[in-house]
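Justification of resources, computational component.

The compute hours requested in this renewal are based largely on the per-chain cost of generating structure records like the one below. Each record pairs the submitted sequence with a full structure-token output. That output is archived, and it is also reused by downstream analysis tasks.
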Amino acid sequence: MLYWMHREFRAESNWALIYAREQALQRKVPVAVVFCLSPSFIGATLRQYDFLLRGLEQSARTLRAAGVPLILRCGSPPDEMLRLCAETRPALVVTDFDPLRIKRQWVQRLAQQVRRPVHEVDSRNIVPAWIASDRREFMARTFRVRIRRQLSTFLDPFPELDPHPFAWEAPVPSLDFSQLRASLKVDARVPPVSGQVSGELAGREALSRFIEQRLANYHRRNDPNADVCSGLSPYLHFGMISSQSIMLEIRRRGLGGDNVDSFLDELIVRRELSDNFCFHTPGYDQIAGFPQWAQHTLEKHRRDKRAYLYTEEQFEGAQTHDPLWNGAQQQLIVTGTMHGYMRMYWAKKILEWTEDPAEALRIAIWLNDRYALDGRDSNGYTGIAWSIGGVHDRGWAERPIFGTVRFMNEAGARRKFDVNRFIRTWSSAQLPIFPVQSSL
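The structure output for this chain reads:
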């Protein structure tokens, strides 16, 4: 039995691995986890690869203690999986669900060419994406009703990761993660985030800190100066912790109230809505993925005069006229994350300061995927599409450049938080010293 892990990088509380082990127990056969290290993945840099591999190294130890080896392959993931299936002839291949095009192509190719059944398990969403809705949802309001109606059906507690009784007899190459990191051929000019701890344990510890120290003040989440956000996004992105584990832990502690409700709505409804958008929208990272009303209004205003126009290099180097925008970009460069409110402002200003919406969308995605630890994620693509293209939003008052797409400006930010404090914090941030490049 093989479990091809490519989205949920955790040994515990992982429905795909749980299912693979159940199937292996029924057949009385061993099970192994497979990870195929792709030499490049949608512009990921050393920052993202380092975080992934440090976490995977921890998960490998947990798996080994449970009698489940981690088989590591390097190269094209579908090619490597086809070779491994030819070598091991598994009874079944279990794999992660992921709505991104490249992942769906990987899984589709394996399913079409391997002479073994391939079962896909959605361990990311509490309600599996194909069950939550069979179509693209256009508003959180309607999707929320669907999720809440089905949530209790899927909130089963996770079984323990007990030792697997059937040993994997085939030889498994030893895992040398230091050598693996040293051999990476990726862009090292975006370095790992200093002090950012990776892995399943770190994700659980981050959750405990958030619940015990910041959740009570979550009503201040739109203030980038208030340290009340969860900090869980990198761990959720790499599947080192799951939404279901988080919700079950909050329930175990008996927590409730408006702050808990707001957090769970963002954790579950908004994140699962993002998977819905990418799952049912092949062009989730293109103008064609925007709703028709947004495409129409942006095209109508595409040639509107811009007060400022910046190059890709200027955006990357936080070299605009706007200290607030520059601060958000510097926060992203230094920490690998950006406050949610500022990410909306950041993306909308890229639309305002580029020649057309398509270029704005490309630059925003490129910067986010290059620097953010949670880049190349349905949540990121959907958030940028909301900011620039009105996805999951409605039309507002018409204005230049934006048309009827929601507008944000510094005055609105000043009504919400101390803008000058945010600028002071990040204008003095120590940026990594590496040459700026224009594209990957």
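Residues 258 and 376 are 31 Å apart (CA to CA). DSSP finds 19 helices and five strands in the chain.
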